[in-house]
Structures are given as C-alpha cells and as structure tokens.
Amino acid sequence: MKILVIRFSSMGDIIYTTPVVRCLKTQLPDAEIHFITKPAFKYIYDNNPYVDKLLLLKPNLSDTIADIKSEGYDYIIDLHNNLRTAIIKLRTGIKSSTYKKQTIRKWLSLKLNIKLVPPVHLVDRYLKAVAFLGVTNDGRPIDYYIKQDHQLQALLPASHQNNYVAFVIGATHFTKRMPNKKIISLCKQLNYPIALLGGNDVKANGEEIAAAVGANVYNACGVTSLDESVFLVSKAQSVIGFDTGLTHIAEAFNKPIVSIWGGTVPELLGVQPYMVKTAMVAGIELSCRPCSKFGLEKCPLGHFKCMYNIPEEPIATFVNIT
Fold first, then answer.
1. Which secondary structure element, helix H or strand E, spans residue 317, and what is its range?
2. 37, 145, 166, 297: most buried by Cβ count inside 10 Å?
3. CB atoms within 10 A of CB 287
4. Which H/E stretch holds residue 179?
C-alpha cells in the first residue's frame, strides 16, 4: 500500500500531522508513507523516520499533480481540505479520505461567541481521516527531530546553562503576544534564569525585556536559528509560550508548558497542548474573546484585556514548582 498525506501549511497544523503519519507507518508496517507540504515547512519532516518520501508543493499545481500521478498512490489522506487539495484529488482520481474542518461551526462559534465546536484536539480530528484503514491513536506526543548536535555552552551564557525557562515571546500576530510590560512583570516572579526565544521581529522586544529584568534574562531572539531554538526548548526546565509554532513544537519534548492565549482560543482550533504530562493553558473569559481564529494586528476594541488581564501569579507558581 502506498499512501500520500497532504498538509501544506502552517507550522502548527503540520506539527500535529506527525502522530497521524507515525500511526500510519507503525500500524500499517508494509505501507509506504509519503508526505507533501510547502517548501517553507519541509524542516518539520526532515529526519522523520516515519516518512518514506517527502514531496514539496511546486509553484505550478499541474507540476505537483504530475508528480503525484507518477507515484501510483493507493490513497490520499487530505489533512488540509481546501480548493487546491480538492483539485488534486479530482485530477488524480486517487481514492481519498479528507479531514473535516467544521468551517461553518467554527465561523458561527467565532461570530456568535457560542461554543459549537467540541474541544477535540486537532490530532484526533486528523486521525478520523485514517480510521477507515484501522489506524488508531497510539497515545504518544507529536514528533520533531532536531537537525544538528548543538551545545548549550555555544548558545547560552554560563548563568543560563542549568534549569532555565524557555520563554517563547514571538507570534505571528499582535493579539497572540503578551505586552512587554506583562512579560517583564512575569519574568521578575520566576525563580529560574530565562532564555527569550523568537525571531528578528521580536528582537527589540527581547532587548527591552532583558534590560528591564536584568541578568536573569538572556535575549536569544533573532540570534538563534529555529533548530537552535528548538534545541534550547528541548533542554529547558519548562517552557512558556504563546499560540505559535515553536510553542507547539515544544510539546514533542514533554516539558512542563504554559500555553498563553489572548485573542485566540485553543479549543476552537483544537490545538491545546497535546500529550504533555504537565501543562497549563492560560487565558481569561471575555465577551469579546475570541476575536479571531488566527490572530489580528491589533485589538479590535483597543483595550487588549485578553492579555493585560491574565493573572501572572498562577503562571509564575506553575513554573516555579515544576
């Protein structure tokens, strides 16, 4: 049996396909499992032992369809479910099973602020697409494989090489990020050295936070590569982060995690921490929350209470005792 699994984007959504691919490979040992995604996200499946071949989406969809046809797949498992994957399934004529997005329920949940989407994790939603093959959830975490053999002493100062907290302060949209002054206040309550992680877009934020808190904070934002950041997460005492890819990747290493949510909510997307023994989801109930599925560039009402009003003490207590 030869199976193609499709998920083109984004980082978090692709991360949560890894248990599906693992379950396919381990429970169908004679099957050949291929995965296709956008080139920007190939690193998620680099070194993954459960994928026999990684295909990349090409600029011209017809070229991608030709590649797929040439492989002679028995099944397509569509974990993206959009117009592009519909065209692929139609033009290849390959038997397929498709993840159900519950788009209308999600839209109504967002617009009416009514919980119409059951709080089922995205992994389990994905797994329904392969149930017809007899594949079931193996109860293990997501998979992520660090690409190189990194050394802590090359990435962190001596003061931060033992029992540090990795704080992921980056996120794509403003409404997913905690304001700097809240991060500063929280960092001052932690009993461990703190390594701030994120890209160049939050490097200045990291500098402001480190300057305000002092030597207990090391700003690695914009300094470490993604692979180095994942390595630092894997070696941390615990992890604090927002709704962003690196926070989700951290779940692969079963570290205590505080997942902080502002304008978005995990239950709508089904992306609460997965198979993590010690986890805390921080967010508050507001009539205006969630304001979007994926985050916005500013608070629509201007007050940003969903982040400003999150209590800091429970987060600090959780981190300090784990």
1. helix 313-321
2. 166
3. 5
4. none
pLDDT above 90: percentage of residues in the chain: 89
The pair of three-digit structure tokens given for residue 273, joined into one six-digit string: 């921490």
3-state helix, strand, coil in the chain (%, to 5): 40, 15, 45
* pTM score of the predicted model: 0.93
Q: Tokens in use for 61?
A: 């969809």
Residue 247, Cβ neighbours under 10 Å: how many?
Answer: 26
At 93, the amino acid letter reads G
Using the structure block, give the residue that is written with the tokens 């969630």: 290
Q: Give CA–CA dist 54/264, Å, rounded.
A: 31
What are the structure tokens assigned to 316, written together? 């600090």
Q: Which residues of the chain have pLDDT under 50?
A: none
Distance CA 315, CA 78 (A): 38
User: pLDDT per residue over 248-276, tens digit each?
Assistant: 999 999 999 999 999 999 988 789 999 99
Closest by CA position to 18, among listed 123, 139, 133:
123
User: Using CA of residue 45, residue 50, residue 52, residue 55, what is the dihedral sign?
Assistant: negative
pLDDT 10s digits, 124-173: 999 999 999 999 999 999 999 999 999 999 999 999 998 999 999 999 89
Q: What is the largest CA-CA distance in the chain?
A: 61
Instruction: Report the distance separating Cα 37 and Cα 311, nearest Å.
Output: 39
